[in-house]
Amino acid sequence: xxARAAFFLTRYPTTAPMEPSKSTATASAPHPHIVIAGEGxxxxxxxxxxxxxxxxxxLATLDTAIANTALPVMAKxxxxxxxxSVWIVTAYQLAMMVSLLPLAAxxxxxxxxxxYIAGLALFxxxxxxxxxxxxxxxxxxxxxxxGLGGAGIMSVNTALIRFIYPTRSLGRGVGLNTLIxxxxxxxxxxxxxxxLAIAPWPWLFAVNVPLGIIGLVLAIxxxxxxxxxxxxxxxRSALLNAAAFGLLILAIGEGAHQAETSxxxxxxxxxxxxxxxxxxxxxxxPAPMLPVDLFRxxxxxxxxITAVCxxxxxxxxxxxxxxxxxxxxxxxxxxxxxxxxxxPVAVAxxxxxxGRLSDRYPAGILGGFGLAMLCIGLVLMTLMPDxxxxxxxxxxxxxxxxxxxxxxxxxxxxxxxxxxPERSGGASGIVATARLFGQSIGAALVALCFxxxxxxxxxxxxxxGAGFAGAACLASFLRLLTTNPAASYAKK
Length: 492
Fold this sequence. Notes:
Radius of gyration: 21 Å
Largest sheet: 2 strands, antiparallel
Number of helices: 20
Number of strands: 2
Distance between the termini: 23 Å
Strand content: under 5%
């Protein structure tokens, strides 16, 4: 066994002995500057690496915020219905869902930085294709490609943070990551409104191109080289994973659009069959692509459930609110951007605070408190008067954002530290998958709400969001009854 791999296993022992031939241990790459998880980069290199990392994360988040805000304009310009225009969001999320876990698994083998750089390159090219799209189908295809690129970024994002920051300050690292995401959501609506005030919607995607190029130039020398796993990439498992998650998202989307029951049932059953075959195939794999080994840890499972439910609540709110402000309240596109801003502003304020607190207090308490606030905020949004003032809307959005921001950083750290370092790729993939799966459920349920009631669809979606936030709050507090088997890693 190479010396660095032996050091890696000595410092970070797994929960059970493993044979060398089946080990998930990481063998050092021939690169002289390989970084070991938990040690992090030196201070002078860490700053540039995290800036580089967060450029692409910010771009992917900014693109989501822009697309959500501009859905009414794109639906009108492309001559389609609000329910159909949700596919602009769903296509992006579908692409990410089918590729997140395979790319995370591939990152453990070939290196996280390679997956990240390739994803950023594809995301930048696909953004250009979105800018020149001429119809809903062409834009949907371009968004699908953009989602594949986004998956390359997001699948290994948190894994790279674990190598950039030492474990003792990992909470600060994930807090900064959450802060950048919040800032992107903050400026997204304003950027969208500003661009739409002077230019057509294709320019919303064109802004990604120069920023993506800058990110690529910086990423190549700045991102750390990480240890690589010795197991091989399983193409059949990747295809089964893509089929299982893709069919599941399609079933949810088709059901939301009230497609034929037989089609929805067939897609759902096919997703279950592919999922069963995937789990059976990977039952003896040392590092399964669908990380069922990590789900045997109660802390990891409850943190993943908390993430799915909370992001479903966020998806319900962020997709429905632009339509609520535009159709129900008669606000302009510029007004929509401004009214959407308080939520991410509050997240940006609370995220770094919660990140630092997560280094001292349990994620169950911090996350549960934040999600309770989110639930209350969404209930208040649902019960908003018919003719609310800007103040009436803003303070409710602030309550939602404060709660959501207080939950994110502690939950992200709980997910990552409840997995051993050699399974950082699998944990990172689940972080992104839980987020996108929740958001996909939220977007699909918004379409269903509009199908059930064109007049009250937005309020119905916000009410469902409050329900998901309440479920996430319960799951978060349940973590107080568990112990983190990887807590020893976080203390080293």
